[in-house]
From TrEMBL:
Keywords annotated in UniProt: Acetylation, Cell membrane, Cytoplasm, Cytoskeleton, Endoplasmic reticulum, Membrane, Transmembrane, Transmembrane helix
Bilayer topology: Multi-pass membrane protein
Protein name: PRA1 family protein
Entry-linked InterPro entries: Prenylated_rab_accept_PRA1
Amino acid sequence: MEVQVAPLRAWDDFFPGSDRFALPDLKDISKWNNRVVSNLLYYQTNYLMVAAALVSIVGFLSPLNMLIGGTVVVLVFLGFVWMSHNKDILRKMKKQYPTTFVVAIMLSSYFLISYLGDVMVFMFGITLPLLLMFVHASLRLRNIQNKLQNKMEGIGLKKTPMGIILDALEQQEDSINKLADYISKVKE
């Protein structure tokens, strides 16, 4: 299936008034994780635009360090994903504690970048966009259109860049399995 870019959501939908934002239920981690994954999929193009703006500003101010920082983060991410596919212990950790897995990637990247170059480029050019995405995805309540788009992504009707990244982090398997069970029940 070919990869499709998700549409840019209206900015008043992406960042409306405070009535569409709420703190997640910190006691129910799976529900919070579901909200984050759903919002990451639904608003992925908006997140990309915000991240591109921040990366462009930092990249303009320090292009070589931004290039080194971006390369290090991508290589560390790919290394962690590769290791988690080859080591069961890492695979289980990635599936059970996705936030810990991402934090491990970011900390590893931080130490490598601090060894190679400018830490502030890492903080503002790479970590800040990721932090903003996570905070927005955690606080933004989902709507009907968001849920429908995520179901289409989950059953394979659409494949987007964020869906591919979340698959690499194994954050969509449970949703797909639940949806497949639901579809099989409906068919019966």
